[in-house]
Amino acid sequence: MFAGFRNDSNNFQPEFVSRALIFSGGKTRFLCHIASLQPDSCGFAQEAHNRVVWKWLILLCRLRRRLPLVLIAVSGAIAFAATAFDLRVNTTVSMPTGLYREVPPQLERGAWVVFCLPEEPARLGRDRDYLRRGSCADGSQELVKEIAAVPGDCVAFSRAGLTVNSHAVPGTAIQAIDRSGRALPHAAFGERRVAPGELWVLGLDHGVSWDSRYFGPVPACQVRAGAMPVLTFALGSGQPKDAGDGP
Questions:
Q1: 164 and 203 in contact (C-beta within 8 Å)?
Q2: 3-class DSSP state for residue 43?
Q3: Phi then psi for 223, rounded to 5 degrees?
Q4: Nearest to 240 by CA among 218, 208, 215
Q5: Could you say which DSSP state residue 95 is in?
Q6: Do the Cβ atoms of 228 and 101 come closer than 8 Å?
Q7: DSSP 3-state assignment of 1?
Q8: pLDDT of residue 235
Q9: To which H or E segment does residue 223 belong?
Q10: pLDDT tens by residue, 48-76
Q11: Residue 59's pLDDT is what?
């Protein structure tokens, strides 16, 4: 027997041809692959290719069986990193979604803060699925918002929107109903000065944000941390313009 060849009868027949025809169910279309081999390859290039393909298929099958374990390991690694580096994920649509780092809060206009809602608006948020389950004392999720007004600021609020220190905040006209068609409670209309220990907060996407326009000022003691973006995505276009953070 010659290298790569076999004497089946009176004629020499390349061994790799027999294997290729068997592998392809006897169809002769495999001969086009054989014709592309180098003259001195003796069919080993195609045979080596088949071995590589089978090795990859076997590897993928093994990985598929172990996929649940891989997912558990990745989830554990993310949880460990989040705890070690004070990271949190924001999924609500009123602020850029993504990864944030919790830092000492700066209670000033324009700062982004992580906070828990007071009991009454938090209950409404849970009942209407504006809020998920979370780590706040009542079991609801924390929110990330931007501070719009601080103690001493003059706030004027009407159906047309919010004004802070005589400067209108664009796009803050309120919605009458939420995305499910339910009447949406809002803060009292009128002009007032922000009391000590209170903050007015807004989401960046005013059209979908459930914020101080609806639940009123937030006690500053409810602020847990500042929020510094680490890896975030731009606010999505084409979101339905209904108030309420998405569940």
A1: no
A2: coil
A3: -75, 125
A4: 208
A5: S
A6: yes
A7: coil
A8: 62
A9: strand 223-232
A10: 667 777 777 777 777 677 666 666 665 55
A11: 74
What φ, ψ does residue 212 adopt, rounded to 5°?
A: -65, -20
Q: Which residues of 135-156 are buried (b: 16+ CB within 10 A; e: fewer)?
A: ebeeebbbbbbbbbbbeebebb
By C-alpha distance, which of 94, 126, 87 is closest to 201?
94
Distance, C-alpha 113 to centroid of its chain: 19
Cβ contacts of residue 121 below 8 Å, gap of 6+?
214, 215, 216
CA distance 105 to 223: 8
- Amino acid identity at 225: A
Amino acid at 17: V
Element (H, E) at 229: strand 223-232
Dist. CA 142–CA 88, nearest whole Å:
10
**What confidence tens digit (pLDDT) does each residue in 195-217 have?**
999 999 999 999 889 999 999 99
Q: In which residue are the tokens 């780590």 written? A: 135
Tally Cβ neighbours within 10 Å of residue 30.
19
Q: In sequence order, which ranges of the chain are alpha helices (DSSP H)?
A: 15-23, 31-35, 44-65, 67-84, 119-127, 212-215
Q: What is the SS3 assignment for 228? A: strand
pTM over 0.70: no
Angular region, 171: left φ>0, alpha ψ -120 to 50, beta rest: left
List pLDDT tens digits, range 2-61: 444 444 445 444 444 444 444 444 444 444 444 444 444 444 455 666 777 777 777 777
